[in-house]
Structure formats: C-alpha cells, structure tokens
Amino acid sequence: MLSGVKAGLVSAEVLRREQQELRRHERDNKHLEEESRHSETVFRDKSGRKRDLVQERLEQRQKDEAKSERDEQYARWGKGLAQGRQQQQNVEDAIREMQKPLARYIDDQDLDRMLREQEREGDPMADFIKKRKAKENKEKKEKPRYKGPAPPLNRFNIWPGHRWDGVDRSNGFEQQRFARIANKKAVQELAYKWSVEDM
C-alpha cells in the first residue's frame, strides 16, 4: 500500500511492528522537517546552479534604470535638441523681461537692440545689408571649381572636381546611353511623322 503497511489479512503482531516502524521513521525525520520549515527556497537555473536572486534583482534594477535613462534621452532627442534649447532660451528671456520695470523709456538699451534686430517688411536698407552679408559669405566659403575645357556630359549633370586633369577615363557607357536616348527619340519622331503623313 502507499502508506507502507501490508495489505490484506494481517495479525496484530505485524500491525504493532509496522506502527512502531512508522513512529521511529517519523522521529528520525522530525529534525529534517524542522530544518526544512525554516529554510529558504533555493532557486536553480536550467543547468542546476543556484541563482542569487538579490544580485539578479540588483542587475535588473540597474538595467531598468539604464533603459529608462536611454528612453528619456531618445525622447529628448525626438523632440529636437535645438527646439529644447530655443524653448529654454525663451523661458530665460521671459524671466529677464519680467524682472524689468513695466515702464520703458527711450534710453532702454535692451528695447533699442530688440527693435533694431527686428526685420520689417519692405525695409530697403535691411535688404541691402542682407545682400551684402550673403555676398561676403559667398566670397569667403566658395569652394574651388573646375576651370578647364567643357567636360563630357553625364546623366546626373555633375561637374567634375577642381583637380580633374581633363582626361576622360570612362568606358563609354554615358556616350552610348545618350546615343540610345537620341536614337529612340528620333525613331519616335519619325514614326509620328509617318503616321500623320496622309492627313
């Protein structure tokens, strides 16, 4: 039987021996029962090694903090760094303006500078200054260009670099392509003329 006693018709002597055996077995296992009642659960991984749950929780918390920090940084980048800086600048400007007195006089330097920096529609002098600044910037930052004989055409209309020596080292693909396009156009034009010849 499952309890460990004999099944069927048994004598009282056999029953007494079995009861004593069961009591002795329970007494022997009593200390194991007490130990297991107050012991902590041991968690193991797939390979059978003990898992350190405290360390795992600490590592998981560190990973979560790093992930939340990274997500926060991506959210900040998604909004736009320049826009964030501009918003911060607007807040600082507003605070600075709030600290100024309500009445502004003609000798207020901040007001004077702000009015000078404003662009007004139809201001001919502002247009002149803008053109002059653009011209100065163009003269400063203009990159060197190729100044030799006209280069062969290419399908992207890209001008050669300023160090090009003028030697065409292509395999002739561009010329063949332009010839095919011109031939196709000529055949189409000829076919059109032939089709409307009778009219």
What topology emerges from the helices and strands here?
Elements: H1 12-38, H2 53-79, H3 81-99, H4 109-117, H5 124-141, H6 173-195
Strand content: under 5%
Arithmetic mean pLDDT? 85
Number of helices: 6
For the sheet with most strands, the description reads: none
Query: What's the N-to-C terminus distance?
Result: 113 Å
Give the helix level as a range of percent: 55-70%
Indicate the overall shape.
elongated
**Order of helix and strand elements from N to C terminus:** HHHHHH
Spans where pLDDT lies below 50 across 5 or more residues: none
SSE class: mainly alpha
Q: How many strand elements?
A: 0
**Rounded Rg:** 46 Å
Q: What report would you give on this structure?
A:
This protein is mostly helical and 199 residues long. The protein has a domain at 53-99. Helix content is 62%, strand content 0%. The chain has 6 helices and no strands. The chain has helices spanning 12-38, 53-79, 81-99, 109-117, 124-141, 173-195. It is elongated and about 125 Å long. The termini are far apart.
